[in-house]
Amino acid sequence: xxxxxxxxxxxxxxxxxxxxxxxxxxxxxxxxxxxxxxxxxxxxxxxxxxxxxxxxxxxxxxxxxxxxxxxxxxxxxxxxxxxxxxxxxxxxxxxxxxxxxxxxxxxxxxxxxxxxxxxxxxxxxxxxxxxxxxxxxxxxxxxxxxxxxxxxxxxxxxxxxxxxxxxxxxxxxxxxxxxxxxxxxxxxxxxxxxxxxxxxxxxxxxxxxxxxxxxxxxxxxxxxxxxxxxxxxxxxxxxxxxxxxxxxxxxxxxxxxxxxxxxxxxxxxxxxxxxxxxxxxxxxxxxxxxxxxxxxxxxxxxxxxxxxxxxxxxxxxxxxxxxxxxxxxxxxxxxxxxxxxxxxxxxxxxxxxxxxxxxxxxxxxxxxxxxxxxxxxxxxxxxxxxxxxxxxxxxxxxxxxxxxxxxxxxxxxxxxxxxxxxxxxxxxxxxxxxxxxxxxxxxxxxxxxxxxxx
Length: 454
Ligand code: DLL
Prior knowledge:
It is a single chain. The protein is α/β, with parallel strands linked by helices. It is about 30% helix and about 20% strand. The protein contains twelve helices and 21 strands. It has helices at about 1-15, 25-30, 35-55, 55-65, 85-90, 125-140, 160-170, 185-195, 205-215, 235-245, 360-370, 405-420; strands spanning about 105-110, 120-125, 150, 175, 200, 225-230, 250-255, 260-265, 275, 280-285, 300-305, 315-325, 325, 340, 345, 350, 355, 375-380, 385-395, 425-430, 445. α12 links the parallel β19 and β20. α3 crosses α4, α6 (about 125-140) packs across α7 and α11 packs across α12. The radius of gyration is 23 Å and the shape is globular. The site of 5'-O-[hydroxy(phenylacetyl)phosphoryl]adenosine has 22 residues, from β7, β8 and β12.
């Protein structure tokens, strides 16, 4: 504890304006870049030996690439290792990538994947312990302490959101409300009765809760100060909207089941990118077409290697998330590399009439024009030609019985979308609340073309 306090003090005298910054594991979160690299090299070498000895698929892949564990002497050699993909995980389902006997595993979690076979990740007790540390770091970075009431509305069960943040909240010592998703009335009642100060859920559910709290006239009765929102893409516009409606600071958190769950990276008070927990995960950005490793600052596909995982270690796992890494010094005092929000998916990008369309571009247009984040993008193919329709709710203030007023609004949005995307997108304004709400990840895109089946 003493060493933690000393580290905080050093950081604070260096950077006076981050006077409120607190850390869960300061010796690690604020370690020198050289120290972090040393940990990474040491752990990588051990992990490579571990997977070579215990996971036949890795040995086969390394042998095919002409490698033995002796070829990997540190982080600089990481790029020699072959990649692993979601397809590999599906092919290895369920036990093919286990590096520990099943008797040492205590939990599984699984992806929310709606297509294909699910991905199942295994954890030893030690894996869970480290994962919860990562979530605890995120909660403390959002201002959490044992004085807080942490309300976890991510789904519990196979989805990693609920269990991960729940464990992190316990570690910090917050009073933890394991709400899971759903039953909005009960969520709001607990929030007001028990004085929730930190809310953890998807950004789309946070936006819905904010809307519901305001509608019920309960805005003055909530004591929220921070939100930890992730698991799906959300824009800066959406962040500002939620922050304003709830009177909180909204922090992004990133993760994926394959690598552990939430807490692979998290935002600090700077809110300028998420610090990757580099003592557990080595991050690389590659050109998704060639596999070449890109320098920091360049946009590409994020790849992770889990160097401390016991049960289910993934070596150079291709996430399909597109982002940029930055090693610029962060004024929060943390030294771990930062990643931008995912800027798209290498595989969810829509190609409409031959044009690349990211759903986040559409969301930016809608939010800039004052629409709520309740929308759906419907892509179809009619007479061999692609169509795209954006259905978006009007706010109660916009809502009008006048057809000409609604039509003028639709035209305005069509023009703004054309300017952003370069293609015509039909716009249909719908009544407030007409779009089905999600309690987990929002379903933003309905692609009726089914181009990726089979
Ligand atoms: O969504 C883990 C998680 C739970 C993260 C709670 C944050 C909070 P999966 O269901 O396996 O795991 O989905 C992983 O979701 O590859 C990204 O494409 C996307 N994703 C996760 N966090 C973010 C975020 C959880 N903050 C996939 N922003 C990832 C944008 C995100 N996309």
